[in-house]
Amino acid sequence: MLTSTLQLLFANAAGRQVTVSLLDPQPTLTGAAVQAAMQTIIDRNVFTSAGGALAGINGARIVNREVTDIDMP
Q1: CA distances to 7, 22, 39, 64, 66 from 1, in Å
Q2: Which of 2, 38, 63, 71 lies 20 to 30 angstroms, CA to CA, from 13?
Q3: Helix, coil or strand: residue 63
């Protein structure tokens, strides 16, 4: 089974990285759309972290994970 996760990488007020993960991202996502959404998340203070509010964008990535079960007798 293959699963895809969109990871949004932010910097918080303390300068530490915060990752927000979203399952099954649209395959047609563009960098511009992701960046705009991340900026909206920051501007509207949607999330906070132990190190304070989200303060900047560090990047984004799609992580694909494949799990294969092993048949056992």
Answers
A1: 19, 17, 32, 10, 6
A2: 63
A3: strand
